[in-house]
Records
---
Amino acid sequence: MKTIGIVLAGGQSKRFGEPKALALRCGKPFLFYSVEALRSIVDQVVVVAQPHIQKQLQLKDVQWIEDVSQHKGKGPLAGIYSAMKHYEATWYIVLPCDIPFIHKTIVTSLKQQADDAFDAIVPYVNRRPQPLVAIYHHRVKSLMYDCLQQGEYRMYTFLSSCRVKHIEMKEEQPFMNINTKEQYYKWIG
């Protein structure tokens, strides 16, 4: 069972005011935390980002790609699809770049839930789905493509056409994404 880890770092970070992938926690860019959480668990880590992010970060054993041109800048669904189009695997573990408290234990427990009877393994924290910290089976690539072709970019719409296994997670902090400077100063300083 080949597994690819996908880190989504292509967002515009409008609310944050600068690329969140480059924001620091304990002297390390946010992006590093997602890559490290995946590195020993997957066969390959793929970062979907704009070229200026790659130029500013030096990461070994990581593949860098941009969204496929047809769907460039269309959000997380386009990023996940782009990685699936470039790299073949059975399962894809997806993480965003703006969750600097993520750790390997969370990713390992998600991977252990992989089940061919489902298209997606999605954790729930406080009864809220976390579709960007999730696992997707390769067969959803065509569903993603169909959504993108129809101009439907929302993850929840895409998931409504999938067989989803919901995993209840108790630990909240690893799923905390930092979207604004206020959140940054509150949780990181």
Note: Helices lie at 30-39, 51-56, 76-86, 104-112, 141-149, 155-159, 181-187.
---
Amino acid sequence: MPHIERGMAVGLFGGSFNPPHEGHLLVAEIALRRLGLDQLWWMVTPGNPLKSRSELAPLGERISLSEHLARDPRIKVTAFEKTLGGSYTADTLAHVKAKNPQAHFVWIMGADSLQSFHLWQKWREIVSMFPIAVVDRPGATLSFLSSKMARTFDYARVDEDDIGTLWKRQAPAWTFIHGPRSTLSSTALRANGRKTSP
């Protein structure tokens, strides 16, 4: 787990990154800039219960590709979730919170994940654990209106004009960040047999 100092604002950006691409980097950069974060943890997960393991590249390869792509020193590529032994996201975040009570965290997710977010294990616990920033992705702009998470926690939505203070807020609190979008997707890159190579 990366080192952080007391009072830091840290974004948690998890995913399979299979492979990582410029769209992921754009989400990370937007989150760093718009949320005023000190660090962003690029958390490469060992696996995803909602996706097939057969198409998952080795963890070491995904870490290496992510490190090559994410050059900003504020972005810390990590795979500490592997040491937790097959944890769900909610368990990983609870572990992060317990180990770092002196820091402020924001969960970062692409809007394309919002539609299926209610299928995640303990998704309500995730929303109640840390503030969440949902970053716009192509074809998912309206997901913040139609997703179950957005409807259930509509009362906790923070106006985009106030997102610079999101990391200071008590969860549940979430916002939708509009901005530049990349059409790249890991699914399309895998279908074309491509990966972002060092």
Note: The longest strand covers residues 9-15.
---
Amino acid sequence: MGQSAYIRLVDASTTQTVQLQDIKDKFHRYIDMTTKTGNQLDWGYAEAAFPYTLVEKPEGKDHWFYLKGSNPLYKYIVVGVGTDQANQAEGGEQAEESQFIQVVLPDGATHGDKSKANEFCKYLAKEFKAQLDLFNGRRMYYYPRKP
């Protein structure tokens, strides 16, 4: 069984719903930014920053896609969207549905995949101002929190 990280959309997030196309758009923006950085540095930074190709399977339509490594140091990262019931502190209240982005490292993923997956998770959490539950169980907050 692979490892998973979750990017959970919270009340303070930039959006309360996310579609798979939104995530693809964020990845395309990431590739565009790294390409421009590489052009400024006169170096192929985009290939080093995003050594994957985005692959969609018919069975995963609108639910998940995967990033296939274009370098022997990288293999696969799976990215999907889903919903779950948010826990309510007070008993008797209706549980509210919340959306999340799940990033999975399948069996056989390399250390490079894990490093890139952490980087992509942090990027997506920052873009959506979301809560990030990392592969190691630690939690990072990318949204404004009240003291």
Note: The two ends are 38 Å apart (CA to CA).
---
Amino acid sequence: MVAGVRAAADNEPRMNHDPGAPSPTDLGTRLERTNELLQRMLAEVAKTPSTHAIFVDAGYVHAAAGLLVAGTEDRRSFDLDAEGLIDAFIDKARTIFADSRLLRVYWYDGARRRIHTSEQQAIAELPDVKVRLGNLNANNQQKGVDSLIRSDLESLARHRAISDAALVGGDEDLVPAVEAAQGYGARVHLWGIEAAEGRNQAEPLLWEVDSTRTFDLDFCRPYVTRRPVTTFESESEPPPSRDEVRLLGARIAATWLGERGPDSLAELLPGHPYLPGPVDQDLLVEAERRLSRSLRGHAVLRRSLRDGFWQQLQSRL
């Protein structure tokens, strides 16, 4: 009987014990240590404040604020106190995101060949401000700004660098940027400037964001100043001659071509003798700046100015 029981026991499968495996006591100790580390990490995360950033489409701000306060979207007709406006945006964000810290303000603008203007350089030197430049084509249209905004928004949200983004803009092309940031858990708040009439922000953009806020005339007025325009009628000195204005047009054309290159010239030639509206406006404003006089009431002088501009360009062919 005893022999039979012993034989049966010998036939039962035996559990192999790995000498290197941790004992139940060791496993319990490790779990306790892991839980303690997790609790410490969660406590640190709870102490870490959330972070926000402000993304400003400068083209939208100039157009919307200029139209609202100065009655024009033409940036050459008014001055924008960018530093004061940025400070106002920061103060507003501090109020809205009371328990959050500012990462920085991103200021998106266009420039010829992405070279900072003196105004953009001054903005870039402000504390907590990052200037990001797209390009400007021959018609003064911004190119690449929306893609820069999307890249920054998406990257910061993906790396959990921000929890909230205040986006100052209105272009429908910004919708993918909003979607990308939201996909990584960030909340996007659309800030806009009161429209003089109708709307200045695309409806699909308004639908996509987490909240909206509009700044009115009283908010914008301190930061927009219309530039004075002088006229010949108010001047005691006689106006310049047609030859003087024609020569000035040639000088401006030489500068224009040097900044933009031969490709821009090729774009203008099919329209001769007419200049595209933005180029013609640039020419007129620059001539008035150099003359310290207005040419708005002198059609003959304006034609001389354009003649000199074209003659200089054609001499380069």
Note: The chain has two domains: 48-226, 233-314.
